[in-house]
Amino acid sequence: MADMEMEEDHPRLILHNFLTEDECKELEFIHKSCSTIGYRPNVFSTTLSHLIATNSAHLIIPFLPIRDRLKEKVEETFGCEYELVTEFTGLISWSRGASIGWHSDDNRPYLKQRDFTAVCYLNSYGKDFEGGLFHFQDGEPKTIAPMVGDAVIYTSDGRNTHSVDEESGCYSARTKAKGGRQWPWLHQKCRDSSHDEDAKLILLLEENVLHKSNNVPWSLLPLPASDNMYWFSPHQASNQDIGFDIRLGRLHALGFDVYYSRDMNFGSDLSELLMEPMQLARRDQLLDHKFVNVLHSLQVAQFYFWKGCKSQAFTNEVQSGKAVRLSRSQSEKITQVNSIFLKDTKLVETVFQSADRCYFNLATFSAAITEWEDYSCKLHKEILLSLPQWRAHQAIYSVKFDV
Q1: Alpha-carbon separation of residue 261 from 56, 288, 323, 337 (angstroms)
Q2: Do 14 and 151 touch, CB atoms closer than 8 A?
Q3: How far apart are CA 91 and CA 35, in angstroms?
Q4: Where in the chain do CATH 2.60.120.620 domains reside?
Q5: Which comes out higher in pLDDT, residue 207 or 329?
Q6: For a designed S-S bond to 281, which of 34, 242, 257, 398 qualifies (C-beta 3.0 to 4.6 A apart)?
Q7: How far from chain centre, in Å, is Cα 145?
């Protein structure tokens, strides 16, 4: 890990290989399977509070040790007299057309509590995306080309005014050409304990995790947020006649269609359809497994392409997966769903890089469903074990700062 020297007038630090490739891939999986529309056009985001609210609290576990390492590095680098608190943690992806002009991270009255920012990159400029260079207005280094695993740490005030170039468009979705996405992990830190993210997270965890009586896979099934949080349209227009639902969009990029067995009444509110049980189809085959909702199917599918596409193997015994050839009526229902929730498939293929070229095996996909349940249960157990210590530390911390 190579650290670059800090300038006194523009305190900043670049850490190479701060995250391992495996850490980056796990965080990327979480973002692809759980993200919603972001805070500005052409941006997608995942926050820890959102994960808890959508019954995916177990997915915050991979963040925690990395947050601690970042906090310790910031305190060490900047000689902080008091222990810092984390104000905000989020995964953010920038797609074609996303950019941000010159600004500091405390440039609003309600952001003045911010002292330090850490950005960790989950993929690489020139390999995974084009555009998206990070520029500082003054000082050195002037420009940063994001590279997988690197971290950039800097003060959040005007001494480190910065901007991010516009992301370029993707090339062919079926080639290995460069895409138009970068995956930074954003981490804001401050000295003001009243803005401590952990205090809020503990309350949410107590409400959404501790009340569960059984630690079984079906208690960990995701509950989607409101549909408007998943609707992508150019320039974030509210028009539902253009764009697509990002859950179905990501599944489409993975080579899947969504099938609902019930007949659709176009006179009713079809947004409720995405909360209902469904199946996945791939090309002309209907997979037999029934998912509790579309977000559940997306998490499993992304898990498969995170784990299975690389190794073609899972630790669980591989059982024969089942699929049947789609009938004409089933294909028509899929077409109906796509006409409602995938208004612009060309836009989908521009925004999300296709993984359809990856090897797919029905038997290993069936095994991935069990593996996903084991993974979720393992992380959930870690939450139950760590929450008492987390709460105790928070209580000591609050007394220390007279909160």
Answers
A1: 26, 12, 15, 11
A2: yes
A3: 8
A4: 12-166+178-211
A5: 329
A6: 257
A7: 21
d(CA 290, CA 365) in angstroms, rounded, equals 13
- Burial call 13-39: b when 16+ CB within 10 Å, e when fewer: bbbeebbeeebbbbbbbbbbbbbbbbe
Angle formed at CA 274 by CA 272 and CA 276, multiple of 5 degrees: 80
Between helix 362-400 and helix 197-208 the angle, nearest 10°, is: 120
The burial of 94, by beta-carbon neighbours within 10 Å (0-12 exposed, 13-18 middle, 19 or more buried), is given as: buried
Place of tokens 């797609």: 95
For 12-166+178-211, CATH gives 2.60.120.620
The CB-side HSE value for 208 (13 A sphere, CA atoms) comes to 23
Cα radius of gyration (the chain): 22
For residue 179, pLDDT over 50 is answered with: no
Q: Would you say the C-alpha torsion 401, 73, 27, 352 has a positive or negative sign?
A: positive
Q: Please, what is the average pLDDT of the chain?
A: 83
The two tokens of residue 280 are 């996945």
Distance from C-alpha of 34 to C-alpha of 59, rounded to nearest angstrom: 10
Q: How confident is the model at residue 109 (pLDDT cuts 50, 70, 90)?
A: confident
Contacts of residue 125, defined as CB under 8 A and 6 or more positions apart, other chains included, come to 132, 133, 145, 146, 147, 182
Instruction: Give the up-direction half-sphere exposure of residue 239: CA atoms within 13 A in the CB hemisphere.
Output: 9
Mean pLDDT of all residues in 122-137: 89
Asked if the model's pLDDT at residue 84 lies above 90, the reply is: no
